[in-house]
Amino acid sequence: MIILGVETSCDETAASLIQITNQYKYTNYTNIRIISNIVSSQVKIHAQYGGIVPEVAARKHAENIVGVLKIALNSKLKTQNSKQNLKSQILNLKFIDAIAVTNGPGLITSLLVGVEAAKTLAFLFNKPLIPVNHLAGHIYANFISEPQILNRKSQNLFPAVCLVVSGGHTELILMRDFEKFQKIGQTLDDAAGECFDKVAKILDLDYPGGPAIAAEAAKIKNSELYFLDSKFSISLPRPMINSPDFNFSFSGLKTAVLYSYQKLKSKNQNHISAICAEVQQAIIDVLITKTIRAAKKFKAKSIILGGGVVANEELRKQFMSKVYSLPFTIKFFTPEKNLCTDNAAMITAGGYFKLIETPKRDWLKKFDWRKIKVDPNLEIN
Ligand code: KG4
Ligand code: ZN
Predict the structure, then answer these.
(1) Taking a C-beta distance cutoff of 8 angstroms, is the pair 112, 58 a contact?
(2) pTM score above 0.85
(3) Between these two residues, 381 and 261, which has the higher pLDDT value?
(4) Are 110 and 8 in contact (CB under 8 A)?
(5) What SS3 class is residue 324?
(6) What is residue 30's predicted lDDT score, i.e. its pLDDT?
(7) What is the CA radius of gyration of the chain?
(8) CA of 141 to the centre of ligand 1 (A)
(9) How far apart are CA 12 and CA 208, in angstroms?
């Protein structure tokens, strides 16, 4: 089975082809292989504004979507080594079984571009069109393994506690099975990625803030700065770390950074790296503590991470060592780094797990392109 996927929920225009073998028995040795995973990032454009400008993002998606789709589809034709006329093959899209598209959550004007492009293809080529929740996509990024055999269901994965941490969301989700999600907690204000981005802006670092702060924080380990200046110490709060619920709050952390930075600046001190290391650690501490507490409460068999913030090396390392030092056994999954930030392969994989719940004869009826609606506030349950 081959599925085409489209993702335009934020500032990445993305299309992907994945191939699934043994699709009818995903309990046994299903293999999800990426044929192409094309991402056209608008980061450089939005960097000059220090954040995403929705109208600019939508316009760029409209400009880029056809080119991105063409490259993603062409990869399949190249791998086939076909002697046939490439153009006519593209026009037939014969080799594709279904199309998946992100229909929310995200920026409405951005989502619309991908959904309308996908609807057009589904209509023209009479294909099922599967709407995929962006956050579920971040979770399903874990189920893509190339070229290894995937046999996760029989590994006794569920219930799983999933932490999705991106620029727009910080959510803890209980996953009882494939396609069975229940939100158990979320941020009450800023998302963790948003906190990284806003702190970077305060500190005059690049956009997106996550990678910029991680790079600054990494310097502290090799520098004497932190230790030489005994008068300098920075200690930031770990908001809601001890609250009994599974919610988060990161806007106070950003404000705490602002005040610390202003104080330091007025004393003419420049301890950017130390601030970055501390804010990164504060975010990591909260995310790990609350996820593990949720895993204990729900007797989870696995912890699954997803979203752009999971590309953070310190978070991955510290999470893994914490999980492996627990007095009980729990599986731990993170997507490959390039599958943490927004991409279409994760959406395509999400489409597969939805499709497979329905018998093939009903695909066109159940996944009728006419039924698909964009929802910028789409919930996972
Ligand atoms: O999932 P994603 O690509 O887009 C959304 O769905 O929002 O996540 C983007 C977020 C940004 O806030 C970015 O700063 C953050 O992920 N991010 C990171 C890293 N790479 C990206 N945060 C921390 N460390 C990183 N290495
Ligand atoms: Zn995302």
Answers:
(1) yes
(2) yes
(3) 261
(4) yes
(5) helix
(6) 74
(7) 22
(8) 15
(9) 13
**Which residue carries 């791998």 as its tokens?**
79
What are the residues whose beta carbons fall under 8 Å from the beta carbon of 53, sequence distance 6 or more?
A: 46
Q: Which ligand 1 atom sits nearest the alpha carbon of residue 11?
A: 4
The binding-site residues of ligand 1, defined as CB within 6 angstroms of any ligand atom, are: 10, 166-168, 193, 196-197, 208-211, 214, 307-309, 311-312, 341-342
Look up residue 378 and give its two tokens.
């789409």
pLDDT of residue 255: 96
Is 226's pLDDT higher than 80? Answer: no
8 A C-beta contact, residue 168 and residue 229: no
Is residue 68 predicted with pLDDT exceeding 90? yes
Name the residues around ion ligand 2, CB cutoff 5 A: 166, 342
Atom number, ligand 1, closest to the C-alpha of residue 341: 3
380: helix, coil or strand? coil
Question: How far, in Å, is the centroid of ligand 1 from the Cα of 355?
Answer: 28
Count CB atoms within 10 A of the CB of residue 155: 11
pLDDT for position 21: 83
**d(Cα 351, Cα 3) in Å, to the nearest integer?**
8
Higher per-residue pLDDT: 155 or 59: 59
Q: Which of 341, 346, 380 should be mutated for ligand 1, with most atoms under 8 A from CB?
A: 341
Q: What's the gap in Å between 22 CA and the centre of ligand 2?
A: 28
Least confident of 8-12, 78-82, 312-316, 339-343: 78-82
Ligand closest to 137 (CA) is 2
- Nearest atom in ligand 1 to the alpha carbon of residue 192 is 12
What average pLDDT does this structure show over 47-62?
A: 93
Q: Which residue, 263, 219, 259, 214, is CA-closest to 237?
A: 259
Q: 246 vs 33, which has greater pLDDT?
A: 246
Q: Which of the four pLDDT bands, split at 50, 70 and 90, describes residue 27?
A: low
Q: Which residue has the tokens 């991680």?
A: 214
